[in-house]
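Q: I have 162 residues here and want to know how they pack in 3D. Can you give me a structure?
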Amino acid sequence: MDDWQDRVDTVWADDTLTETQVIDAIDALAAERPEDDAVALFERAGARDSAGLESEAEDLYRRALALGLDDERRTRATIQLASTIRNLGKVDESLALLRAEYEREPRGPLHDAAAAFYALALVSAGEAERAASLALVALAPHLPRYTRSVTGYAREIADGHA
């Protein structure tokens, strides 16, 4: 699978390809795998998602997740599905998926990505202050200074005291 994934990664890295060419190339690579290959479905979903074809991507993400993905791809697929369905107006489901992902692995490598998309979904749900608090909490550890202050202010926003 490493050679296959390398070829997929090469498609994603090729800035000269149009969105349609990316979809075609990913679909051609996916055709090399079994029809129920979760990773191939995930890659096909991502190609459509990045091309703005959210409705097509949604089903593929759901199938990939149902079939089972390794932990990193499962996290990525959950975040990407949640973002996709938020764009399709399914904000409540998006919030539920992102909240679960955000709370699942506080020290995971994609935790901040989950926080960012959770914050976007909160904004879509009309909870901008809660979104700002969440985003600031995720940002604070990356600051060269003021981590404690920004974290404290973020908590004040969340508590309604800012």
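Q: Anything worth noting?
A: The chain has a mean pLDDT of 94. The two ends are 51 Å apart (CA to CA).
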